[in-house]
């Protein structure tokens, strides 16, 4: 568990890291998620990391993407742990 907290702390420190290279910008950060609804009844607070990117497509158009890895632990032994890999793309 200490490894997970260490990784989360380092991820939060690197949240503002950005690389600029011919219109491409990348960022890395930590994520804390609060489950709601029925999912909140069976799982507790989730955490993980994310990668965010932007690419200049045209003069006023920017393409974006976000992906990462999120972990949610079950509130009791009868509920399993959940892992989610979100993928979001936009312009």
Report on the architecture of this protein.
With about 90 residues, the protein is an alpha+beta fold. It has one domain. The protein contains 2 helices and 6 strands. Strand 4 (about 60-75) and strand 5 form a beta hairpin. The longest helix is centred in the N-terminal third of the chain and has 12 residues, at about 1-15. It starts with a helix and ends with a strand.
What layout of secondary structure does this protein have?
Elements: H1 2-13, E1 18-21, E2 24-33, H2 37-42, E3 43-56, E4 62-74, E5 82-84, E6 87-90
Antiparallel strand pairs: 1-2, 2-3, 3-4, 4-5, 4-6
What can be said about this structure in brief?
The chain is an alpha+beta fold and 91 residues long.
Tally of discrete structural domains = 1
Strand percentage, roughly? over 45%
Rg is 16 Å
What is the arithmetic mean of pLDDT?
82
User: What structural class results from the helix and strand content?
Assistant: alpha+beta
Helix proportion: 10-25%
> How many strand elements?
6
Tally of helical runs: 2
């Amino acid at each position: 568990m200490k490894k997970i907290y260490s990784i989360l702390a380092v991820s939060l420190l690197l949240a503002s890291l950005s690389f600029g290279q011919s219109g491409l910008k990348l960022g890395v950060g930590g994520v804390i998620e609060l489950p709601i609804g029925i999912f909140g009844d069976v799982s507790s607070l989730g955490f993980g990391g994310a990668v965010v990117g932007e690419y200049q497509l045209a003069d006023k158009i920017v393409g974006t993407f976000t992906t990462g890895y999120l972990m949610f632990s079950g509130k009791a032994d009868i509920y399993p742990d959940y892992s989610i890999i979100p993928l979001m793309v936009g312009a």
